[in-house]
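Bit of a strange request maybe. I'm writing a small parser for structure token strings and I need a real example to test against, not something I typed by hand. Could someone generate the tokens for this chain?
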Amino acid sequence: MQPSPEQSPHHAYPDHWEADVVLRDGGTARIRPITTDDAERLVSFYEQVSDESKYYRFFAPYPRLSAKDVHRFTHHDYVDRVGLAVTVGGEFIATVRYDRIDATGRPASAPADEAEVAFLVQDAHQGRGVASALLEHIAAVARERGIRRFAAEVLPANTKMIKVFRDAGYTQQRSFEDGSVHLTLNLEPTAESLAVQRAREQRAEAKSVQRLLAPGSVAVIGVGRTPGGVGRTVLRNLLGAGFTGRVHAVNSAFSADQDTIDGVPAHRSLGGIGEPVDLAVVAVPADRVPEAVADCGEHGVQGLVVLSAGYAEWGAEGRERQRELVRQARAYGMRIIGPNAFGIINNSEAVRLNASLAPDRPASGRIGLFTQSGAIGIALLSGLYRRGAGLSTFISAGNRADISGNDFLQYWYEDPDTDVALLYLESLGNPRKFTRLARRTAAVKPVVVVKGARHSGSTPPGHAVPVSRIPDSTVSALMRQAGVIRVDTVTEMVDAGLLLADQPLPAGGRVAILGNSESLGLLTYDVCLAEGLRPRPPIDLTTSATPQGFRDALSAALADGACDAVIVTAIPWVGENGEAESGDGEVLATALHAAAAAGPAKPVAVVHVEIGGLAEALSAATSTVAQQRPATQPFAAAQGAPTEPTAPVPGTGNPEREPSAPLPGTDNPEQTRHGGRIPAYPAAERAVRALAEAVRYAQWRRQAAVPGKVPDFLDDTIDAPGAAARIDALLGEEPDPRGRPLGHDEARELLACYGIAVRPTLPAPGPEEAVAAAARLGYPVALKTTAPHLRHRADLGGVRLDLDSEAALRRAYGDLTELLGKPAELRPVVQAMAPRGVDTVVRAAIDPAAGAVLSFGLAGAPSELLGDTAHRLVPATDRDAAELIRSIRAAPVLFGWRGAAPVDTAALEELLLRVSRLVDDHPEVVSVALEPVVVAPQGLSVLGASVRLSPPPARNDLGPRRLSNY
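Reply from user aminoacidic:
Good idea to test on real output. This should exercise your parser:
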């Protein structure tokens, strides 16, 4: 909202202070600066505040605001006097104001750095977390304007406001003076204040999702009068799933005398329903959606699923229509799934919601599935259904204009019905937040991601995302750092999800392979090696193996302490006539279920070839088996023979009814078997890849339980204030927004503040200058060109090493200029020789979307040609630094490959930590490249360095809570 012309001309309206926020109950509100146009809103707001709340605000009865009060509370300079309002439906529900004061408490201007702050929240909205959100935003505004402390006077009886200040996490002082509590808050963010803010964000965003997934009533807007159509389909699916709440059909074209349709009440508008509606599914043409949204907002609907198309996927006009849809919904406190969505499903028995276009509600299970594509969502639902997998929740978000995968990570983090989160993403609206949320969620349950549209420039229409300069390989590395299981295809996502949902996590990578086909066992063995697992020699049970033989072999493998996981391979039994028979899969499945249930909790996967009924039987988690054939016969030997029903196999009960208990002596949920389902795969490589992902994820979980740290010894050798002063001087008072590269000496001086020594380099525009430089540095020296097209290109002859005399230097200089060009083109330099070692490269850069990224690789072809580079997010810990140098494929070169002396990896890790600290402490350092860094058996030498400074890019992950604007 822009101010009127009479607003103070000295300070423009700060529209970047405007923000949409999610409140504690999951509803949304808008925070914005108060302007001179808000007089009537302020008076109306104040009239709805109770006398008690007015008394707490003004310390005396204050029934109404005077004209002078209204003028004061609506006229601000946005520097020394600032007011913010929280609005829902365009009306105020809360306000906050600060006034800058001096040491005596009188009005002041800068450089005074303290302000008095006061809040007022409408009684009907107290308890929604409004004041806490306002405090975050007004504190951020104050810091921006140079205010470092807030002072507040609160009556002792105003316990709610005292709690808001006390729980904020800021450093504070409290005293009792003249009958009131005097509070002083230091506004510098602390680890506690950031933790409080993020915990509140998680609870609020999870609640906003929960309101959508577990409504008490649903209205479908746009139900057609004749069968067919999107609205009628959703209504049919809601009823078919057995939704436990109330369902209403809405269509303005219904006749006045039409009371029902498909057995549910029919209404011409939401106003005709006569009772609250929690969720509205909007299935009308795009040009009629605003009318429907307004109707929902005016009647208290909590959330929307917008199936309508015709938004950002249709171009610029559609993008603006989509932005307006989000603005309109949030103004009423509603959140949106969509537009262009496929719908949502919640399989909880207490809800049974299918507000989607999927005709069948999938089986209930422990997997949560989020997809940005309706087509992919259909394929995934079908694939999971065929393999007997069950879902807890399903969301197809379409253009994800509001609610995104981040919101569902917040929800799944504490959802007791979800054990595994699967996400198909085509874009990341807030990559920093995604990484943070994924890391936290992955610490308690697996997160499996397929990233579509991976290549630059292929963001799907309708998805507004921040520009990122990092390649997809870097994105993948950063996901893995956060514990995300990144796979390439939706098939791999389902494969991994089934194993993670149904099996315990492996303790390591030692794999036992057993089965009735030597060839299939060997194929599985080879794939295990290729995936970095440690397979044991396959156990061939021969083609005459019986189900009992499989059971005994699996029991023995699970009981073996040298085995962490088992892969069972099975092919059809060959009969006496030489013909392959499909066999009875239920018999084998029963045997495998029994062995898995009775043995130690280790993951089991089955690779099968054309064994009828096996996959279905393995995926079943029922307490009974209809017919169980003798377990001592080969698969097909008993076909057609009469059998007697047997007792249920212990431990194969329904997981929802009979949850598995932890192993004796442990309460670790990782070592719990999930209800008897065993995942089956039609190919060895699919089973092994899924198991390998589980092994890597389990290893990450174990390491994440004891997080790394930044060593304290760095503090004694880092001059952060000195670096800050140099950066300020180099950027100047009006820095170029495009940034500026530092010269060689400037970069050396800045890096020295962080204990990073760059070997001096002296220019050599002619042979005499080269000789003088060598005399100054001392022989032996190196002669190098610094022309951009020859930089770091020893293969082109632009680097001459080990020049141990003046004659050798003059000869090399002549050869260099004769071969490559004139000195003015080559820009030769002379540098003292460094001890021999391995050439590496260390880089750090700030990506606008992902944040600061630290990278490491071997210099030259390994990193430049083969892309063998490792990446970690900044700030890096000691563990991150150690993993960086060990995770590249060429890492053996650093550790004594082929008899060479191992290099000083400890010095290399320390260098990585110093670079990380530099870019983390000073966001103006937008890129650093150290190349080459020669790592010797003792110590290292930084031979080249380039640094670029720029005004720090805006960050949306450290400020107050706010919803993304797309």
